[in-house]
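Human: If only I could read backbone structure tokens as easily as an amino acid sequence. Underneath my words sits a plain record pairing an amino acid chain with its backbone structure tokens. Take your time, and here it is.
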Amino acid sequence: MLKLLSFVFIICSYHISLSQTTITGKIIDPQDQPVELASIVILNKKDSTVVNYTITDKEGAFKIIENKKGAFLFQASSLGYKTIFKTINLKSGQLDLKAIRLEEDLNTLEAVTISAVIPIQIKKDTVAYNASAFKVHSDENLGSLLGKLPGVEIDSDGNITAQGNEVRRIFVDGKEVFSGDPSIVLKNLSADVISKVEVIDKKSDESELTGIDDGNKEVVINFTLKSSQKNKGFGKIAGGSGLDDKYFINTNYNRFSSKTQLSIIGKFNNINITGSNISSFLENANGISDDSDDEASDNEISPKNLTGFLTTRVAGINIGQEFREKEFLNANYFYNHSNNYGTTFSKRINFATNNNFIQNSDNNFNNTTDNHNLNYNYESKHNKMHTLKVNGGITADNRTNFLDKNVRFTDDSGTLSRINAIELSRKNKNVSGTFNIHYFKRLTKSGRSFVTGINSSVLQKNFINDQHNIITRNVGLSNESQKEQLTFRDETEKNKQLKLYFNFSEPLWTGHQLKILSSASTEINNEDGVQKRITVSDQNTEESFLLNFNNIERSYDTGLRYNFRTSKWFISSGVNFQDLNRIFGTEDVSPIVKNQFYVNPTVIIQYKPKRGAKHRLLFKRFIRSPRSRQITTVVNNLNPYSIRTGNPDLKTEKINQVILSNIVHDFKSSLSFYSRIQFQFIDDAINSNVVINDFVRTHSFINSDQNKLLRTTLSFSKKIKSLGIRYTLKNKNLFRTNKTLINNELNDVITQGYAFNFWFENTNKQKLDLKTGLSFDTNQTSFSLVEDLNRTFQRQDYYTSLDYDISEKFNFNSQLNYIVFTDNKFSSNEKLPLWNAAFSYAFSDKKNQLLKLVLIDLLNQNVDIYRHSTVNYFEENTTPSLGRYVILSYTYRLGNNRSS
């Protein structure tokens, strides 16, 4: 079979090579010098749509391999020169266009500009893509457009990477929308209103003001609207319904001018959609979870997994106003209501030296959330000597949770020993606010400047818990007993943070700079409340105690940093002196006072040999003091089987971190390479201390000698021009060690993870967009305490997606995943085929009316699975979910105009 496949591949490759045309040539300027990064495009003569494209190398040379035959339009262009067009006839073999001379264009603007048929333009720190050169549907959002751009990727969590760099801010026409939050902008603005997309290697605000590179660049994305969409309203209204009363309504309206931005968003549905994508059917946590998993109450569904059935209502508005050039205010408000209900079946394997047991539970939950979120951002850069930035926000969050939980405890022999029936009602009211102000000032001497500012935040959480427990011991035995408990807990947590900072920069001589960094910060945490517990018996007993804990942390930091830069090198070395003062305890006991002084060095070495290549080494030492929940003396025993407390004797963690990253993105060869190695070792690491006694798990914290973490990431992507495909390979590895204490015995935990993802996709997506690949990841977690409970987890995902334009108005879309995962700690090893599909038809040439049939989970798997591990238990949660459903929807686009 392997020989047959190899033979077929060779024959196919041979026939493909025979039918190809290789187009070569060289672009030169009026002085016969080569023009690098000129855009070379092959166009259809009929409609000027893009067939293929490339850019020139340092010698001005280009090469395009094309399978199509016939007469086409050749285009060569570069900023500062007039665009050249000529008709070419493609036949099998070689077509040498020789040297092509461009003429200077004296009317070219300095800014990056793109004509309607130039896919990519490159200038200085900006890569600009012509949006019309990449296929998107009239109902697709900006996230779909970004996913089609070479060098730009969006992962399953919505994180954006552009040329190997993480993107955290997004602009529209150079201004922030919805505070620059990518998750909101990408899901709610339509792709077909965009004329170009710019990926900008943006300097820091201080560098922009002084003109001196301080090494603190960030990659941002700017979307430019089509001229036909400016100064008028555009958006869409979409709605659909299906079987079993499933429905959704999405609407957005936008109006952008040179001075004003307005966006209004509304989403209403009961199909488990929080943004614009169907939630994952299968989630797995590999290896040991972080502290946040273990800190969640055992009486709550994991916050990392959307399960069951969800109804969502979202409304938002964004307003932006430019008062004058480079002075802009952006404000937005969001309201989010959700109701999430269902039943989760949970299996937890608890282990210790001689106290292993299993607990199975059925969890009926019903959670309602009402969230209000207001954010603002003011920026003034109109004065060349100073910059002012003010931003912040207010959030109010009301939550009501109800949980009906039945837990069955089984001992080592498999005997049912105990039953715990729980009814929990919880009301949470959270209010938070932030206010930040930053002032950048350039002084008279070139390169001399200072930065000062304030960062502040306030958070208050109110919890009211009303819980009813019925505990049955020694099930089925003659000495079976039952205890009934009623617990009420009213708790308030308050957090206040304030940081003042002042940084001064002094140029020494060309390429050399000295920076003085200083800051003072205060964080205050208060926990107050009362807990009352009544045990129902022949003689009712009542116990109550006050919850009271205060934690104040003050840090005074002074640092010196020396920066050296050339056209290719940036080197920074410095040291930070930190005076850390901590005072904590309860009001009725003398507070615990700890004063510490630390010296923390930082070194950065960065080398950029050419555009698109960057190599960076970072070493940093920093201090992380214990969080309030880790040192609190307040006991949380709301759940009598999971008791949590702190350790006031904890030391601060000393973290040493080394990060080596390499980025190479070559548009000429269509190659992208990215690697990142992170090594971290933590002295006095804070780890778990678990005691298990009579099915009760008491969790606290200890300092251990040292934790180690090694995390590597590798990504390689290359275009095979002769086949018209691009392949991408991604690899992630993890090695982590930590020490925990379980029943006073030391437990060495080692986690090793390996992930591999490989896929192919076609490069010409004008009519067909096809992607197919596989991902494989495995994780091994070993415990020195109980070796026979070492965990090995594997997950395989074979996937393919197809987007095909059957005609100009009729489209078919399909996604198919076949997921196989095994786990030696759970018998329910799953093989899950997941299939979604959609048919859409546009009614008019402008495609402003769309009828769509959406088919979700056609194979009706209707299950969510979430697995995770902690230092002494494994857990699997299985939740019935929506399953198969069909929705017929209608979309009407407002102000749709497909011209640029």
